[in-house]
């Protein structure tokens, strides 16, 4: 109980509450501007966290990501332009309702489902994380190796689109993780004689380049005209919400459950959770023909999964130090900078820090109701912000943010180079999530593999000698073989069908 009260005291103070409020407004604004993603908002926020204590810094990131994910639905509803990738799953439903004069109704149910999903995911995080932490205490280099490999593999198999492109994107991230001194020989690798790269590539400039700078290049490289608002609000925000909640409460629970489970998979995140929840909801709907024409049911399914996916992504991040998505990948870097090592030992700290994090999650989602309502009422002001004014300001933030990490011009060049490569990958439909996971987990795989080899004298069978390690190893191998197994199963099924015919 004393630890819990310590956690409450860390959160319920003027500084932290003020940070949460400011981060809410920042997240709402960034998410509501077309082209600016939640990950970009968090990446721009990182330099400011250097000057904050641990809890306010994490509170700022949690609040910003949750608000930005919801706010991404505002331009999707009015302009049919998803503010964040997670909004793309149901943008057709929201915009169809907006054309009927029901924009605020769509955003109202969206807001309530986002809050419900976020709190649902947080409760699951509280219940599951501490139990998993007890198991994680038994992990050694063998288990962490397989867990990191599983995370890298999931980022490929879960990615939307070509798996070949996802694999190549992953290799780009792994290549970045190899820059620096080799842990075995101490020899520099891919440093090209630059002393600043001896310690490896700094994570934050890469994140800023890969997301923020990439978005800037996409904006200036696009020749499409900005859409204008052609819909008129004729409804209130919350008038019909109780009726929709009563009718679709099962969809809310199902979407939140799917979002939490998908979010907990490394490399998945809210984007994929929203698509899968929308697809499951459409498949189980009694009238799936209404999907795509402005169906509230589709919005309930996917928007519930959005914010629960964010909470779910924190499960592997806190318990194992393995990021669940690109946002938690940034968070892990911030935690290390603040002297907190993500992993099972974080739950053994008697300062109440972990309880403070849980309280921040709940508080940030509750704060979404009033702030989100205000954003819906003022939504047209957000989406009419001139991009030609906003983009140069963001570019300045990118440069300052990259430089502020180590006060090094090399980090600015690194941001520019990675941003250019990320833009070239993005225009050719290469997913970014595998590259981020490759950068974060590449060194984890290498370090734990080499540590295990030193411990066992190069015996590869030792990776299957321990029960948990063997289980994770078998899971990884089955995942690798799943395309062949599925293909063989379908071939045998077609063969038997032809034989019976």
Question: If you had to describe this structure to a student in words, what would you say it looks like?
Answer:
This protein is mostly helical and 501 residues long. It has helices spanning 2-11, 14-32, 38-49, 54-71, 73-79, 91-99, 103-136, 141-157, 163-177, 203-221, 241-263, 269-284, 296-319, 326-337, 353-377, 379-383, 387-406, 409-427, 433-456, 467-500; strands at residues 180-181, 188-189. It has a two-stranded antiparallel ribbon. Helix 9 (163-177) crosses helix 19 (433-456).
Shape: globular
What percent of the residues sit in helical stretches (DSSP H or I)? over 70%
Total of DSSP H or I helical runs spanning 4+ residues: 20
Structural class: mainly alpha
In N-to-C order, the SSE pattern is: HHHHHHHHHEEHHHHHHHHHHH
**Integer-rounded radius of gyration:** 23 Å
* Strand segment count: 2
Instruction: Enumerate the spans where pLDDT stays under 50 for 5 or more consecutive residues.
Output: 224-231
Tell me the span between the first and last alpha carbons.
69 Å
Mean pLDDT: 79
Largest sheet: 2 strands, antiparallel
Outline of this structure?
The chain is mostly helical and 501 residues long.
